[in-house]
Amino acid sequence: MPDIEVYGLLSAAAIGCVLVAATSLILRYGQTSSTGPSLPPTIMLEAGLAADRYSSSIIFSVIRFTLRRLHALLSIHHEIVPDVSHIEKVFFKQNEAFDIHPMSTSMLRRIFGCDFRGIARDEYIEMVDGFMKIVARDFPMSQPLQPLFIGGISGANFSENTDLQHPWEQLANTKVLRLNPAYPKHVVEADLESLLRGLSFHISIPLLYGHDYIDRNPLALWDWDCFGGQTALLALGVPTWVPIPSFRRGIAARDRLVDSISSVYRRTKQYRNGEAVDYGADMTDVSETALDRYKVYDRHGLSAENIGHIEFSLLWAQNKNTQQLLFWYIFYIYSVPGLLDSLRQELASSGVLSISADDPPRITRLDIGALGKQCPLLTSTFLESFRVTEESIMFRRVTERLTLDDGKDQYQLRPGSWLFVSTALTRHDSSIYPRPLEFLPDRFVEGSTASYRTLRPWGLGLTMCKGRTFAEKKVLAVAAGMIALWDIKQVGGEWQHPGFRTGATILAPASKLRVRIKRRIFD
């Protein structure tokens, strides 16, 4: 059959499927709820395909075209702006012209299962503003909390007995190798992404909910992993009853996580009120951040179940992307020739951490606050990792008539229309980043510091990510600890890039990356 006929059949099939599915999703999720207008999932799909440089095939082009025509037919107005460099000031000076709440409520309902029936829009906005102000406060990095970082980084067991391993070690499918019988130290083989995701989870969760949550929910990390693969389908409005086995397992994992987080709230409330705590749980180390958020929920009379859904969404937002970014950060640190040695020299000369003379050596001090100030190459490598892997799109609902000028085109926005701005498309612009396809660790170094410059991975305007300071400190701290203590090499010899596939805000690796890890030997 000639290529043109094949293309025609595929295009017709794609258009037919898109029209049926898109119309169904718009009718189901595009309506207005008690908390305000909902974001049509089909617009998210169109914006995602337009911003994703990995979806440039003929079929994806046909799908984008079809969605665009369908939205026009149904009078769903929207604009996709590919360049943020000229419109950033608009998000600060005219922030009142954009409404972020339709995006947040839509995702809370679809992905995290929140039920907002009975909650009015004004009350919802007041509640969200209340706990987002709490999220915006930096997590305390005082000495009592630093052992959570230090213990997690240097406390890996990597035991041949899996019962003695931490859950995050087990998740990584670790395998102990004794490559040299005459040498008592062993090498561990593991999935790098799973290992870092689990390590990050076990560092972050106790900072918020205390150690009781981890101790009482040992399988939470597996549920987190199981749910993570289904968020794209949920964001697009796929019904939770769809009989896809992996999808159904992800929904069940989400329900267990929500229930476990709701239980933390109930036990914390009992502790605060001086009542007997379920199971005799120790809730004394629940963070002030969590306690303050609970006060906001109580003030608005939310049920424990709804609190579980909202807290899970915040937990996901605070951890998912930083876990993915941590993988790429560590990958580039160890795979770029000469970078690991340079970073070890920088850490040693900066004095931000101390390592014991024990066997095995352990980190005894880590000045987390000083990492970003005294280690410019470490910070610049972090920012460059962000630049090459970030794929974020901002969704806003326009509330006022507005003209946007991105330096190339003008966009006439009407009230009620949708605006999508990709902060990722400029990262391959050679006029902004010379040699954009190369990974240059020192790209963001400026003298004795490192600067974000035009990089905007945390978003724009007053709705910029509220937890960005904590996220940056966490990733820098984990990386510094690993650099100081561990030697890592890819299984099979030379480092090979695993490739990219579309993720959420951060691209995901297209394939598993097995590595061999051993403790660093100090002279």
UniProtKB/TrEMBL annotation:
Q: Which residues bind heme?
A: C465
Q: Which domain of life is it from?
A: Eukaryota
- What keyword terms does UniProt attach to this protein? Heme, Iron, Lipid biosynthesis, Lipid metabolism, Membrane, Metal-binding, Monooxygenase, Oxidoreductase, Transmembrane, Transmembrane helix
Cofactor(s) needed, names only, are: heme
Which InterPro entries does its entry note?
Cyt_P450, Cyt_P450_E_grp-IV, Cyt_P450_sf
Span-the-membrane segments of this chain are 6-27
Question: A cellular component term (GO) from this record?
Answer: endoplasmic reticulum membrane
Q: Name one Pfam family in it.
A: p450
Question: Per the database entry, which stretches of residues form a coiled coil?
Answer: none
Q: Where in the cell is it found?
A: Endoplasmic reticulum membrane
Kindly report the protein's main subcellular placement as a broad class.
Answer: endoplasmic reticulum
Report the GO molecular function annotations.
heme binding; iron ion binding; monooxygenase activity; oxidoreductase activity, acting on paired donors, with incorporation or reduction of molecular oxygen
- Topology relative to the membrane, per the entry? Single-pass membrane protein
Q: What protein family is recorded?
A: Belongs to the cytochrome P450 family.
Q: What is this protein called?
A: Cytochrome P450
Originating species: Bionectria ochroleuca
